[in-house]
Amino acid sequence: MAIPNIAITRRIHAAMSILTRYMLRLHAVPFVFAFIALTGFMLLHQVARRIEFLLGKGLPWTVIAEFFALTLPYLIAMTLSMSVLVAVLYAFSRMMDDQEITALRAGGISLGQLIRPLLLAATGVAIVAFLFSDQVLPRTNHRLRTLMTDIYRAKPTFSLKEHVVNEVQRGRYFLRAAQIDPGSYWLHDVALYDLHEPDRSRVIYADSGRIEFAPNQEDMQLTLFDGTIHESSQDDPGTFQDIEYARQVLMMRGIGSEFVRREDDNYRGDREMGTCGLRDVVRQAQRDRRVASITAVAIRRNTLRSLVGLPELPADTALGDPAPGAYCQAMEWIGSFVRPAELQAQEAGAVRRAPTRPSQSSASVTLDARPGPTNRSGETRVLLDRAHSARIRGAVYAVELHKKWSIAVACIIFVIVGVPIAMRFPRGGVGLVVAASMVVFAIYYMGLIAGESLANKLIVSPPAAMWASNALMAALGLIGLWRIRRSGTLPRRALPRGGGEAVS
Question: Which end of the chain is less packed: N or C, by CB atoms within 10 Å?
Answer without folding.
Answer: N
